Amino acid sequence: MNKETKDLLIKLFEKWSDETVVEFYKLPQSGSNRDYYRICGKNKKAIGVYNTDKRENLAFLDFSKQLINKKINVPSIYGQNLEQNIYLIEDLGDLSLYQFILDNRTADEFPNLLVDLYKNIIEHLVEIQVLAGKNFDYKYAYPRKAFDKQSIMWDLNYFKYHFLKFTNIPFYEQDLEDDFIALEKYLNQTDTMHFLFRDFQSRNIMMCNNKIYFIDYQGGRKGALQYDLASLLYDAKANITEPIRNILLKYYIESLGKYKKVDKLAFRNYYYAYALIRILQAMGAYGFRGLFERKKHFIESIPYAIENIRNILDNFDISYKFPHLHKVLRTLIDSKQFKRKNLSIKITSFSYKKGLPVDKTKHGGGFVFDCRAIHNPGRYDEYKQLTGKDKKVIDFFETKTDINDFLLDIYSIIDRVITKYLKRNYNYLTISFGCTGGQHRSVYSAESINKYINNKYDITTTLNHRELGLQH
Description:
alpha+beta, Phosphorylase Kinase, domain 1, Aminoglycoside 3'-phosphotransferase, Chain: A, domain 2, 3 domains, 5-stranded antiparallel beta sheet, 5-stranded mixed beta sheet, 14 helices, 14% strand
């Protein structure tokens, strides 16, 4: 972002809030090309958005107004300057459904707390699709007004050219194209007259002030009910177990039955077909954003998505309807290049004043390292409001302390353990760093070990700064 755009966002915020900006910083990049900034005044805060795609901006703003008018929980619009590609929306915090799953899931279990939450989300989804979708105006829908033949073929070819081609999974072009055409015809035989959210997954569902909110619906269009349900239940990194998926599918059908008559068998068949195309579209994104752009989250999602394809093929026999597609997918499932690595590592910074981190996985393994022997920048006024993530604090550690010698010893210990865990196919490892306040030394150490592991190993890590309320 250039200084002019930043100044325009600040001006937009100050006009809305009648407050002077005291904090302005960029949020982590998502899968899109949009830039998000948290902007704070003394009492008010908002999210500033910069996006050069003007038609997408129009779609988001218009859809927001329509959904708000229909009592759907989406962010309020505080201000806009479309000529400069910016707008201002409500700040819903940082707690997404995905983060909530990470915080509350234990091992491969899916606790009742999450099942109940998903049921609540499903009730909201039905309202969005059926009630809000009634008489919805799609005039600004982008890039299409409906999930029609063109949209479906775009998604299927996205999978072909951005995943299959990148990974050298063999296929015959014409045979695969014939099956794509047949799949498109099958999908469009069902009812396609409802609001289709398009990207209804755990990172686009926020939890704020004990309410559920929805974001990133600018790709919405008219389409089939099954697509969004499949997006939710086959969300790769949420990794919902198949028995829980069946419970939630049944609950969705019961909830939908309150508003319209449902042919349960037909609904299920189309549900698995839409789940398949949803995952193939996602695989295209994982190929482009992950294998090409090397974004970690997308690469990590690939093994989960392949397992989802396996589950779909177990429930929906496509071998006679789409034989070559079936062959290609079976080859992908059997490929060794994307076998899921079972080891995941949770890294935490914390304050000893508030106790040791709780190990919710119940596996009992891991390390707690005490950072309190390191010289503390928190003793000095210029660092008290900063954290171990800030450059000034990082510079302090690297020039005025021996913290990197401390970490070198830890790297050596961790390397030996990770090597053993991978050989033994262990699932979890926890690494925690504690200091007095959980703000400087422990945060810097946790950030450093997370970077070290990600640079050296292809392993899923979760980084949690407990006292800062940050997780990624």
